Amino acid sequence: MKYKYAFPVLILVLLVPCCSSGGETMLGSNNDIHDEELRFPVEAPVAETFADRFFEPVESSTVPNMASLELPVNPEEVFNLDDIINVSGIGRVPQLLFENGFIVYEPFHITNNPIRAYSLIETWDQPVYVSSGIPLHMLHIFFDQILQDIEENYLYVDLEIVCRSLYESNFERGCNLNAAFFAVPLAFLDPEFVPDQSIAEAVDSEIALIEDHIGFDDSPVMGYREDYSQYVPRGHYTSSPGLERYFKAMMWLGRLTFILNGGEPNGQMAEYIVSEEDARVMTASALCIVSDLSEIEHEGELLLDKWRRIYEITAFFAGFADDLSVPQYSSAARETAGESADSQLIWSLDFYRLFRSYVNSNFAGPGIYSGTGELISMPDEQGEFDPHDLQEAFQKTTGFRFLGQRYTPDSEILGKLVFPAVGANPSGNRRFMPSGLDIAAAFGSVAALSILEERGDLEYAYYADSLESLKGMIEEYGPADWHATLYMSWLHCIYLLQQEKGEGYPDFMRTEAWDRHTLSNFLASWAMLRHDTILYAKQSYTMECGSAPGPYEEPEPSAGFVEPVPEVYAELNATLQMAQRGLREYGVLDSSIEGRFRNACSIMTRLQDIAERELAGSVITSEDADFLKGFASNLESAISWGAETTEGLETSLIADVHTDQNSSSVLEVASGDIDYCIVIYRRPDGNIEAAVGPVLSYYEFTWPMSDRLTDEAWREMLSGDSTPERPLWVTEYMK
Q: For residue 266, which phi and psi values (nearest 5 degrees)?
């Protein structure tokens, strides 16, 4: 699944260390490619969607019919307001609580662990509020910790075998480009590995750049500009030395491209990134890799099967490659050279041109510019920039990636709402950095669009039209698109969350303030999604630019109130079940996790049932009440891993999602410590009640690309005096 737009961009070019059919290479060694027969299997298929195999919907259909209480709230009618205020520590009752029917505030007892927050609230003996953000956080915990387990216990081993086999075969072949290309990740996966002397200088220089992770520099192996700041292990990859090594190896295999289109002139501001000769060598080298995968076995299993397993499992979580890879190059080779071909043909200039033409005519290039070559968009003689430079950048960066980073619609949105696709505003300023608001607006958030308009973003040339086109792309998605991967299913959960709420919903959910609070939940969950897939999701880049008690008998407080969005809980349930089915089929589902899946799905089912009853105006059951009273322990049974109930449960997570080459900075999006929320609603018995519970918080700020933040650094910022300000738009609902 890939949706593309015709948009603009400019490019660049560099030198490429490569193998050739003879002579000196930029790696400084003689590359006499041995005569051999290269083979391209009849098929090298990979999954293109997981929806048909693993997704089954969980239905939810309720006619909203909650009794209204009318805003602003009369504090004297909220029978437990004094008690809620006293135990919550909110201090003086804010007027916003009565105007909007809810308030969000930073609690005195700071925590980033939802279990601790619910455990504390349960001691207050007041109704507990369950926000949809907490089940969304549960999804993050399953997503992140299961992916971590699979990477350490399954993928790492297969990846090392594949890289070692391809290093050895290409060294024997005399293809130094490929040998060096696989020596780099192998050096991380196996710290005892030592590359051959003929390529050692280039490999060691490459590793030094990766370890320094300063920023853009010339790649000693590939020859063009690469952004080495991307190699800072972050997300869950800081939790062990093995995961740090895996991160660096996969980042290399996911970002570096064997560029297809080369010519003169070449460079950062030129028509091509590399010369035609370098592109010829890269293309032939890529085809050698494709052939090796279908020919070489390890312990009776083809490397292609190992490659496919690594690719499909990671695709199940994070999406499908944005760039061309093994299936496309294998298919193109069969069509242009047959199922087998002499290596002299594959390395010839005539064949390269034929193959290049076929690929360009039959396959779409990337849809996200990820910084390859550090391209620069240059103005024309009148000083104007061409918005189509972005589209040209896609053509210039087309090529083969071994395990390419993944296409996600949110990265496409971020990349297409900045320079050069978006022009200057009336003041002549350019939009180099996007915002999480762009994602929410494209997903249909009225609140996000309103804030963008207030900020003046719609005044940038082409911005409004581009946003409308991207919004149309999202609106056209059907069930097969939304459930093609776990990443897309997660996006669909938050897409449903921000749908407009009309008559029959609680009064506080029909305010503009609630829309902005929902926007914060949307973006906090999206930040968690990007955090969990930071290694795989292809990051977009901006190209460089030159109450009192009533007079009646006081009723008893209820057990609590669940945010009535049953369709969200149903979708979360279906997504968890999809994950369980897929992981079981791939043989990577630890039996100890099966029980946690059952518990988590049971929680989602219960939340959906309660939300449907609330929304229909019905009284919840005694079983529902018991569930809410013990929500902390119910939550713990599903999301705690092992005896420790704190590791991995934190809501304080951060991810960089976009890089601006002009300012050498990144957009960091993060969820922070837990806020508390008080909501006021009318119960089915007519009484007006308040409930309190934890909710997610959201932060967004720019940061130097040379210092991409880890979770540890982010938590240190939150606990110190350097915490960034919240977005201004949260003031409408926060105390």
A: -135, 150
Percent of the chain's residues with pLDDT above 90? 78
Q: 136: domain range?
A: 53-141+432-732
Domain assignment of residue 694, yes or no? yes
| Ramachandran assignment for 303, one of left (phi > 0), alpha (psi -120 to 50 degrees), beta (any other) | alpha
Residue at 724 is within a domain? yes
Q: Is 709 helix (H, G, I), strand (E, B) or coil?
A: coil
Whole-number pLDDT of residue 455: 95
Tokens found for residue 663: 């300012």
The token pair that represents 683 in the structure block? 């119960």
Distance of CA 643 to the CA centre of its chain: 29
pTM for this structure?
0.92
The order of strands in the sheet holding 128-130 is 102-105, 675-682, 688-695, 128-130, 560-562
Question: How far apart are alpha carbons 589 and 178 in whole angstroms?
Answer: 34
* Class of residue 239 by CB neighbours under 10 A (exposed 0-12, middle 13-18, buried 19+): middle
Q: Mean pLDDT, to the nearest integer, of 373-385? A: 81
Q: What is the pLDDT of residues 219-252, one digit of tens each?
A: 999 999 999 999 999 999 999 999 999 999 999 9
Q: What are phi and psi of 566, to 5 degrees?
A: -60, -30
Separation CA 645–CA 666 (nearest Å): 33
Number of domains in the chain: 1
Q: Note whether residue 104 is domain-resident.
A: yes
Which SS3 state, helix, strand or coil, does residue 72 take?
coil
Supply the pLDDT for residue 9. 33
Output the six-digit token pair for 189: 């996966």
Structure tokens at 540: 């977009």
Q: Residue 535 is encoded by which pair of tokens?
A: 């290694």
pLDDT tens digits along 34-70: 789 999 987 778 988 999 999 999 999 899 999 999 8
d(CA 710, CA 236): 9
DSSP three-state, residue 624: helix
For 100, 466, 504, 620, the CA distances from 615, given in Å and listed in that order, are 19, 37, 7, 10
Tokens at residue 630, please?
């013990």
**Residue 579: closest CA among 268, 258, 138, 68:** 138
Q: Which band of pLDDT confidence, cut at 50, 70 and 90, is reported for residue 584?
A: very high
> What is the three-class DSSP state of 401?
coil
Q: 453 pairs with which residues across the strands?
A: none
Amino acid identity of residue 615, one-letter, is L
Strand locations in 133-251 (E): 216-218, 225-227
The kind and range of the H/E element at 692 are strand 688-695
Whole-Å CA distances, 192 to 43, 188, 195, 587: 36, 9, 10, 30
Task: Give domain status of residue 85, yes or no.
Answer: yes
Find the radius of gyration of the CA atoms of the chain: 27
Give the count of beta carbons closer than 10 Å to the beta carbon of residue 716: 13
For residue 141, the 8-state DSSP code is: H
What DSSP designation does 556 have? P
Mean pLDDT along residues 290-309: 95
Tokens describing residue 77: 């009618």
